[in-house]
Amino acid sequence: MESVQFMLLFACICWLGDGQFLYPVDENPPDNPLTFTCHECDENSDGNCGIEQTDSSPTKDCSGNRIGCWVTLDIESSTYQRGCEQPTTLRQGVFCNRHMEGKEFCYYEATTEGLKRVCAKCCLNDYCNAGLLQGRPDARFQSCIECDGRNEEECNAGGQEIFPDHMVEQCLMPNSDCWTGKTLYNEEIFYTRGCQIAECDDRNVEEVCTKSSNSTTCLKCCPGGNRCNYDLISGHAVKTTRSYGLILHSCAVVILASHYIQ
């Protein structure tokens, strides 16, 4: 039953969400406020922000649920920012946690001038965001292809070599792996790829298809990361007269709540 629940969840995410595999958002996070003293500066206005911070560097006392000390590096301009507010452009549902603390990761954010590469790191101790970044992801992270075939046509093709770096993400939450989904929805076939909070095991390395009244979604995972979710899915997307769109929606609400990482 557990595997069926996971497949229903993923099918729902693929066509009721925004196309990207989404980490669940907890609208009522546990009331467990943390307090840290973090270095705070912006190299655009403070040239010393780009060097390792010392005891005399500016700091800020921060308190709240799911906070951490952050340091980010704009790769193009080589400018640093430090503080306790996490970047607003981070993947939906991500917050500083024990799985990702102290590990550098990189991502691309959209700007009016195009895509900008940013590397970041968070930590959960006082003054811990004092150091410098390497400009590359920590090798301990799994890296997965991340894309939405409805907006990025390259996502619908197979082959690791075709995916550029801006379509790669690190899995920032615990118990997550790389997943690939293929969906037929209203005569359109598209792929969804990315990290998802669900561990890959023998039950789901082979594709499994779920059908609803107007869509069919086939999903599979791959362990180990290293952009392993680049291949095509061979499942046949055939329409059916079955209808459990409402079941999918209700199921997702329940499962997202029960599987959310505290």
* Number of DSSP strand runs: 14
Question: In this structure, how is the largest beta sheet organized?
Answer: 5 strands, antiparallel
> What's the domain count?
2
The backbone outline, from C-alpha atoms, is: elongated
Mean pLDDT rating: 80
> What string gives the helices and strands in order?
HEEEEEEEEEEEEEEH
What is the alpha-carbon Rg in Å?
20 Å
Residues in helix, %:
10-25%
User: How many DSSP helices?
Assistant: 2
- Low-confidence runs of at least 5 consecutive residues: 1-20, 237-262
Output the strand order for the largest sheet.
2-5-4-7-6
Distance between the termini: 23 Å
- Helix-and-strand structural type: mainly beta
Strand content: 25-35%
What does this protein structure show overall?
There is one protein chain. By secondary structure, the chain is mainly β. It starts with a helix and ends with a helix. The radius of gyration is 20 Å and the shape is elongated. The chain has a five-stranded antiparallel beta sheet with strand order 2-5-4-7-6, with no helix packed on it. A five-stranded antiparallel beta sheet has the order 9-12-11-14-13, with helices on one face. A hairpin with a 3-residue loop joins strand 13 and strand 14. The protein has helices spanning 2-16, 245-259; strands spanning 34-39, 41-42, 59-64, 69-74, 79-83, 105-111, 114-123, 143-145, 147-148, 168-170, 177-185, 188-196, 208-211, 215-222. The protein folds into two domains: 2-21 and 146-259, no CATH class; 34-123, CD59, CATH 2.10.60.
Quick structural gist:
This protein has two domains: 2-21 and 146-259, no CATH class; 34-123, CD59, CATH 2.10.60.
